[in-house]
Design goal:
201 residues; alpha+beta; 2 domains; 4-stranded mixed sheet; 3-stranded antiparallel sheet
């Protein structure tokens, strides 16, 4: 299973530029984050049950670590049973019906917090969200690094060669990563997205 460091080592070996470790490390981290952000992949989805410190009609909670986007947020009973409803995302300036009544069962994100509002007291919440990978620990791996070591290496190589001023080689690696319709090359990105959006049965 390839780690972030393995991909850094691959790029250093292929470019023969061990003197550019800091730049290569930034490039590898960036391409891993971009790969995970290509779409909302099932492998990046996390579920949890939250018990608010202070239950009420309006509850504020900190966003999860490395949160990217919520898939679903639903109020639960105190026994963690579904109440058969879910919170809808609303903008803070769009929380009233035309007749002036306040819309219930919604949430919005403000800074590093999520604010949820319901017509009945919120005692527990079940949420599922998409997360970014942790790229701070170089000895760690993600499902992308484990499955697409060469592809991520190629993506990082495009960035590194561009920074080194070798535009032709950078373009060749960019074509491998993104594809090039002019020469009939699909590229890694298209395949990586196609491989991973279908849920396992």
């Amino acid at each position: 299973m390839a780690t972030i460091q393995d991909i850094i080592d691959n790029v250093e070996a292929e470019t023969n530029r061990v003197d550019k470790t800091a730049m290569i490390t930034r490039a590898v981290k960036a391409v891993i984050l971009k790969a995970h952000a290509l779409d909302y992949f099932p492998q990046d989805r996390v579920s949890a049950v939250i018990t608010p410190t202070t239950p009420g009609l309006i509850v504020t909670e900190a966003l999860p670590t490395r949160w990217r986007k919520f898939d679903i947020i639903a109020p639960l009973s105190s026994a963690s049973v579904s109440l058969k409803k879910k919170f809808i995302r609303r903008d803070p300036d769009d929380m009233m019906y035309f007749d002036g009544e306040r819309i219930s069962d919604h949430f919005h994100v403000v800074g590093s917090n999520i604010i949820m509002e319901s017509e009945s007291s919120i005692v527990k919440v079940g949420w599922t969200y998409y997360t970014y990978p942790d790229v701070t620990t170089l000895s760690a791996s993600t499902w992308m690094t484990a499955r697409y070591e060469q592809e991520l290496t190629d993506g990082a190589m495009a960035y590194v060669y561009k920074k080194l001023g070798d535009e032709k080689t950078a373009r060749d690696y960019r074509d491998l990563w993104l594809g090039n319709a002019r020469i009939g090359l699909d590229g890694h990105v298209l395949r990586m997205v196609g491989d991973n959006l279908i849920e396992d049965i």
